[in-house]
Amino acid sequence: MTFDPAERSLREKLAETAMRAYRRGLVAGTGGNVSARIPGRNEVLITPTGVSLELTTAENIVKTDLYAAPADPNFPHKPSKETGFHCAVYRVRPEVNAIVHVHPPYATAFSHRFQDLPLVTVGASVGLRKVPCIEVALSGSAELRSFVEEVFSRDRSLKAILMRGHGIIGTGADLVAAYDVADLVEGTAKIAHLVVGLGIPVDEAVEVAFRPIPE
């Protein structure tokens, strides 16, 4: 397939990011999806449905408009069923150019508390500030899209959210930034799990982590 140089480069970066997420253990099977806004266009590139992120290639990535409609209905792959919420975030947050949605084990486990992720490290308190949790909804549903759109619209400082019983969404100005946010969320959740295991009250650990942050 032929793509212009800018799109080809973005496709290659997106495929690399998807494979990194899989190999890092942030997702398993055919779950998760990664997308990027094409600079200067009202178009989005997203991983295909039913294909493991490990098997993402520049050629099987799907292009859609900002309302999740495929650019080429005859393209051999279909966009992720979660394309709707990716596009919703791009519409309400113009500074976001990449999204990583994965199902990392520690963060997903914490999502069942239906509370903000405990930011128990100084790095997380600075880099994330807050990671709220949205209610559970069927994958690919209008309800889930609405939950995602609402939370990212309400707090424009958010970089990431937990999705109850589902996974996480990390956003960024580019694919590297979005991946790093998703990875930081999972790393923070793992440390929070260890804090709990050591018998340290989570609220105390969060308070300590936020002490260096100016009011």
What layout of secondary structure does this protein have?
Layout: H1 5-23, E1 33-37, E2 43-46, E3 62-65, H2 83-92, E4 98-102, H3 105-111, H4 122-127, E5 133-134, H5 142-154, E6 160-163, E7 167-172, H6 175-197, H7 202-210
Helix pairs in contact: 1-6, 2-5, 3-6
List keywords for this structure.
215 residues; alpha+beta; seven-stranded mixed β-sheet; elongated
Low-pLDDT stretches are: none
Helical stretch count?
Answer: 7
Order of helices and strands: HEEEHEHHEHEEHH
Distance between the termini: 53 Å
Task: Please tell me the overall pLDDT.
Answer: 96
Largest sheet: 7 strands, mixed
The largest beta-sheet arranges its strands as 3-2-1-4-7-6-5
Strand content: 5-15%
Query: What is the 3D shape?
Result: elongated
Which assembly state applies to the chains in this document?
Answer: single chain
The total strand number stands at 7
Structural class: alpha+beta
Helical residues, percent: 40-55%
Computed Rg: 17 Å
